[in-house]
Amino acid sequence: MSRLAIKICGLSTPDTVGAAMRAGATHLGFVHFPKSPRHVEADRLRALAAPVPSHVGRVAVLVDPTDETLADLSATGALTALQLHGKEIPERVAAIRQRFGIPVWKAIPVKTRADIDAAGAYAGAADFILFDAKTPEGAALPGGMGLRFDWTLLRGASLSLPWGLSGGLGIDNVAEAVRITGAPLVDVSSGVESAPGIKSVDKIMAFCNAASAC
């Protein structure tokens, strides 16, 4: 069995980036979205991602970004993927992937099985699908709110792209989530925080240990 991939998302300090790497995270996520408490400006994002070794993924998390924003972030060469967390349609995702030459992850908000099935529309456009909990209408943020969806919806799903699981994961439930879904990658943000946007080194270590034991 291949090793479970672990993404710690919403990192904003060198200390927590270092903790995630020491804990064995395979991917680090950096949010560039001003409405988020985890937002980091482009210069800081680049500085945080730059020293990360090449075997660890460095993912910029964006919501309906402009081409100007994408160009600014991708030109540094510090990123290994762009994660799109807004309402980007497959054509937009494909255009971003072609223009910037960086693998693109597309977050899919899930409430029903139909949402999971809809991810098939991104085959040939995105490189990776991240299933996340659908936030309530009118919510300020599209993710990072600690919400989870019914993981059993993923049982028996025919998935045409590599994928991962996000939304409401934490130290106490990541093993259950992997057992139910068979997810090859788990993505955590609020589940390793002491307050919104404030990552806990101890929780990062504990989550990675729990996930690695799956």
> Between the first and last Cα atoms, what is the distance in angstroms?
11 Å
H-E string: EHEHEHEHEHEEHEEEH
Instruction: Using the coordinates shown, work out and report the CATH topology.
Output: TIM Barrel
Number of strands: 10
- Which CATH first-tier class would you pick? Alpha Beta
**Count of all domains:** 1
Strand content: 15-25%
CATH H-level superfamily title: Aldolase class I
Rounded radius of gyration (Å): 16 Å
Mean pLDDT: 93
CATH architecture: Alpha-Beta Barrel
How helical, in percent, are the residues?
A: 25-40%
Secondary structure category: alpha/beta
Q: Sum up the overall morphology in one term.
A: globular
The unreliable regions are none
Q: What is the overall number of helices?
A: 7
Biggest beta-sheet profile:
8 strands, parallel, barrel
Which strand order spans the largest sheet, edge to edge or round the barrel?
A: 1-2-3-4-5-6-7-8
Write up what this structure looks like.
The chain has 214 residues and is of the alpha/beta class. It contains seven helices and ten strands. The protein has one domain: Alpha-Beta Barrel (TIM Barrel). Its EC number is 5.3.1.24. This is N-(5'-phosphoribosyl)anthranilate isomerase. Keywords: Amino-acid biosynthesis, Aromatic amino acid biosynthesis, Isomerase, Tryptophan biosynthesis.
